[in-house]
Amino acid sequence: MSIGVSVEALAEAAGIALREGLQVGAISVLAPDPAHPALLLIDAPIAPSRLRRYPLDTEVQVIVEKNGSLRTETLDIQALLAAASLPPHARALVLPRVAPEAVRHDLAGLRGVIARLRDPECGCPWDLDQDHRSLRPHLLEETYEVLQALDRDDPRALREELGDLMMQVFLHAQIAEGDGQFDIDDVAEGIRAKLIRRHPHVFGAAQAADANAVVENWDRLKAEERTAGNAEASALDGVPQAQPALARAQSLVGRAARQGFAPSDDPPSGVMATPPNDAASWGDLLFLLARLAQREGIQLEDALREAADRFEARFRALEAALRTEGVAPSELTAAELAERWTRTACAHP
Q1: What DSSP designation does 211 have?
Q2: Tens of pLDDT along 141-159?
Q3: Burial of 1 by CB count in 10 Å (0-12 exposed, 13-18 middle, 19+ buried)?
Q4: How far is residue 133 from each of residues 139, 172, 230, 239, measured CA to CA in Å?
Q5: Quick one: pLDDT at residue 221?
Q6: pLDDT single digits (tens) 107-117
Q7: Residue 90: enclosing H or E segment and its boundaries?
Q8: Are 108 and 35 in contact (CB under 8 A)?
Q9: 3-class DSSP state of 71
Q10: Cys-Cys crosslink for 86: which of 27, 72, 90, 147, Cβ 3.0 to 4.6 Å?
């Protein structure tokens, strides 16, 4: 549809100035940024996706041409979208600037919320009390909740838990920004540049025939970055000490294996001859399991968590069966308990 009215006339009718920062464009082309006011020229029906970042109660001026003159009507975005059509002879929409924390469906909105929570003047006392160290347990907890959502194959829970985890990332970045170190844009730029650098088979001329070749290229490039200016760098640098012990062991042996290190899988002397009776022997045995699992491509942390889940389900079933019988576990002999435990194997293998 033809607009037929000058931008200057539309701006004058709405009482806005054509100043720097005002976004001007056709509604079929411009996806307005809520951080700045916008004058959208109507040349096509409104696509709801163009306005999804605005709060639904955002007031919009609709500039209508009638009998050769321009006038404005005001309605909120929710009413505008509910109507599914613009008023007759509508020529433009005027959208106001939206507060950063009010922006929807956009990481800028989350950033605005976190910045507001950390505002020294009007922020949240709890959020202002936090630092990188105090947030450590929350970051770990949210990570495990993401893993639980994945284990349950629950998309709704996964969406929520990923949001909680993302909040932790933004909080850490906001703290660093307040300390003058870096901000969330620096975090995003760092991983953007790294992904391009580590994928030359996608963004460059390198070749990678399969996933194994991708891993080899990744490890080679990572090693080059690690050793640049550091002759004493180790292939094991960067494996987090804060990882759960089994996961860290597998990370270490995996790194070593990709360097060609393949020690014998024989258990340390004496470990299997008698049941280990000291922490060092148990540690050696667990590390052997980590090596064996890494060779077979099994993630022991996941395997152990799944085994714990199976044990929990089976034990709960045993408790329920005993309650049905009206029997307390303490009233049964060890052999009777073992027999009932075996019965639960069919229902919970």
Answers
A1: H
A2: 999 999 999 989 999 999 9
A3: exposed
A4: 10, 10, 28, 19
A5: 86
A6: 989 999 999 99
A7: strand 90-95
A8: yes
A9: strand
A10: 90
Do the strands 90-95 and 69-76 form a parallel or antiparallel pair, or are they unpaired?
A: unpaired
Structural tokens at position 211: 């996933």
Token digits of residue 156: 């709704």
Task: Tell me the per-residue pLDDT of 160-217, one tens digit each, with 9 for 90 and over.
Answer: 999 999 999 999 999 999 999 999 999 999 999 999 999 999 998 888 889 988 888 8
In this structure, of 11-15, 50-54, 128-132, the range with the lowest mean pLDDT score is 11-15
Cα–Cα distances in Å, from 68 out to 10, 12, 295, 333?
13, 15, 79, 96
H helix intervals, the chain: 7-14, 77-83, 107-117, 125-129, 136-151, 155-178, 184-198, 200-203, 211-227, 245-257, 279-295, 300-325, 334-347
72 within 8 A of 61, measured Cβ to Cβ:
yes
Q: Determine the Cα–Cα distance for residues 147 and 95; give it in Å rounded to an integer.
A: 41
> Contact, 39 vs 16, CB < 8 A?
yes
- The rounded distance, in Å, linking the Cα atoms of 164 and 146 is 9
How many residues would you count in the chain?
349
Q: What is residue 240's DSSP assignment?
A: -
DSSP 8-state symbol, 268: P
3 state DSSP class of 61: strand
Starting at the earlier edge strand, list the strands of the sheet with 23-26. Answer: 23-26, 38-41, 90-95, 59-66, 69-76
Distance CA 340, CA 318 (A): 7
Q: Both tokens of residue 55?
A: 């709060």
Lookup result for tokens 């956009």: 106
Closest CA to 292 of 240, 260, 241, 253: 253
